[in-house]
Amino acid sequence: MVSLQDWLLFSGAALLIALTPGPNMVYLLSRSICQGRRAGVISLFGVVAGFLVHMSAAAVGLSALFMAVPMAYDVLKWAGALYLLYLAWQAVKPGARSPFEARDLPQDSPRKLFAMGFLTNLLNPKIAMFYLAIFPQFVSPEHGSVLAQSVVLGVTQIVLSFGVNLSIALSAAHLARWFQHNPRWLAVQRYVMGGVLAALAVRLAAEQRRVA
In the prediction, which pLDDT does 64 show? Predict the structure, then answer.
């Protein structure tokens, strides 16, 4: 099984990823603010379903496949980096709005909320690269069943991310009201988010393929 030290290191990395602004956070914030906590929580369950797909792919060896095929890894890496740069630009471009700003969005059905949460996470390059570039580094055949290790690490990541995103969904309305009364911080938040996303894009582009 995974050693305690490796598990703690992995948990720290997973928590950092969950706290970093990205597509999941933006979607959950927008839904929770415009449609309420219930909509945010339903969307979150869709996000969790997306995590299960990423974890399952890693567990059956797709991560190892991408890491072993340079072209496949490089294509996904650069696509993810470009997408993160696009998100960074969307955050800081003139006229951009913060995800904490209240806005009028159509009221979606629970089924659509779940589906959109699922698709947002399934296509999330930040999470895909976490499972492709970071996840495999904590799985070792020397520690026993690779499948069991993958499940333990995957469940750890899902639980941590669920906790962080549930807090965001439940507190989004309060955060939005605070930002409404402190408008200067809306601009600060946008630039911080844009800077973090851009830094992630650069870090992703510089990521070297792990050679076994």
Answer: 63
Give me 50's structure tokens.
Answer: 């997306």
DSSP state of 60: T
CA quadruple 63, 67, 72, 75: dihedral positive or negative?
A: positive
In 3D, which of 177, 186, 52, 196 has the Cα closest to residue 117? 52
Percent helix / strand / coil, the chain, rounded to 5 = 80, 0, 20
> Mind listing the pLDDT tens digit for each residue in 115-135?
999 999 998 877 887 887 778
Q: What is the band of 66 on the pLDDT scale with cuts at 50, 70, 90? A: low
The residues, ordered by sequence, that sit 6+ positions from 1 with a Cβ below 8 Å of its Cβ are 143, 144, 148, 149, 152
Close Cβ partners of 12 (under 8 Å, ≥ 6 residues apart): none
C-alpha span between 128 and 77 (Å, rounded): 9
| 82, 13 Cβ separation under 8 angstroms | no
pLDDT above 90 as % of the chain: 24
Give yes or no for a contact between 31 and 39, defined as CB atoms under 8 angstroms apart.
yes
The token duo for 181 is 């009364």
- Contact between residue 139 and residue 150 where contact means Cβ atoms under 8 Å apart: yes
